[in-house]
């Protein structure tokens, strides 16, 4: 992860204007799918940002909250990676990319962690080569990210620290070196 100060050759993926919720069909998926008690929510703010917040719980084998887009096929093969402008709470989040990659007939997510600075806007640059394949929290070492086959995006908190969380996202862009 690199805190960036400007990119050449960028393309906006999402600026989180009011139509973003419909276009990307953002939805929350918490650990309740496996019995956990974490609770997240997502809203598009009046100032044109996406706000993902809630409470992370480790009870009942829980420990994650995520917000994921619906199907948004994109060919990002001309880019080097993704850059985000975020304001967080000092916690480490994960940015996720979904493609057509599968393991055991289930979708593999490609994850890159990023650190936030409490209350501060930062730009976080993540090259595609930094994304690692995961399935249900386990690494999938033989899965390879193909940026030409992006099907969706996501943010996840799974830092094993119970409590309130908040991540605000101003935009997502590609960058090219």
What this model shows, in words?
- This protein has a single domain, classed as Galactose-binding lectin (Jelly Rolls, Sandwich).
- Strands 1, 2, 4, 5, 7, 10 and 14 form a seven-stranded antiparallel sheet that branches. Strands 3-6-13-8-9-11-12 form a seven-stranded antiparallel sheet, with no helix packed on it.
- With 177 residues, the protein is an all-beta fold.
- The protein is built from one helix and 14 strands, in the order ββαββββββββββββ.
- The two termini are 15 Å apart.
- The longest helix is centred in the N-terminal third of the chain and has 5 residues.
- Strand 4 and strand 5 form a beta hairpin.
- Helix content is 3%, strand content 50%.
